[in-house]
Amino acid sequence: MILAQAPDGVPTITRGDDLAARLAPVLAALTWPDGSRGLAEGDVVVVASKVVAKAEGRLVAARDDAEREQVIAGETVRVVAERSRPDGGVLRIVENRQGLVMAAAGVDSSDVPAGTALLLPEDPDDSARRLRRGLHARFGVRPGVLVTDTAGRPWRRGLTDMSIGAAGVRVLDDLRGRRDAYGRELKVTVVAAADEIAAAADLVRGKATGRPVAVVRGLGHLVTTEDGDGARALVRPPEEDMFRRGSDL
């Protein structure tokens, strides 16, 4: 059985906050169907990148559209595709400094003070590792930790959450070599487990409910003692990328 819940009462996070210390009280108050409370071994703590970025002081000035475009350009490594918007602006899909292909380089102007924008955490995998250490110190268990962000997908409508940082989670679940129900060997099936956990957690977190953190229980087989390679392992290397350059036809 897989259980997921997102606690209420997460405090406002600001620059310099110890994220583990700020989240510990609300995580400790979680009550599970078996009567247990708090975190247990094998749990996965899923945190929206926005609160991580706020704690890390990633808020920057973006007082007008021109300044916001400068911020986006500063976070851009490679332009993948672009399209004119009805308002006269340009939507750009780019590869950012974290190696992620996202709209506007992941720069976010929602839920931040007017005239500012929020960058993604500089190193989301390191952010996940530090949060994991902090939670371990407070709870005595080593949960998996995912840092997630919302993104679109090139062939599908709608947004979903994906993992951009990970610690203690097997982000790719390689099923190759196993056999299906008919005895055929699986040759290409590698599941993006961290992204699936991120999307499941987002169903209980919600986008506008003030609940940026969720805990997923029941996936202990994906939680590892070591921090692991992190979510960077999910990024497809250039030599495997069939869609390196997009176009607007």
TrEMBL record:
Record-linked InterPro entries: F420-0_g-glutamyl_ligase, F420-0_gamma-glut_ligase-dom
Gene3D superfamilies for this protein: CofE-like, CofE-like domain
Pfam families referenced in this protein's UniProt entry, alphabetically: F420_ligase
Keyword terms of this UniProt record: GTP-binding, Ligase, Magnesium, Manganese, Metal-binding, Nucleotide-binding, Potassium
One MF term in the entry's GO annotations: GTP binding
UniProt xrefs under SUPFAM superfamilies: CofE-like
Source organism, top-level taxon: Bacteria
Domain Coenzyme F420:L-glutamate ligase-like: start-end pairs: 10-218
Name this protein carries in UniProt: Coenzyme F420-0:L-glutamate ligase/coenzyme F420-1:gamma-L-glutamate ligase
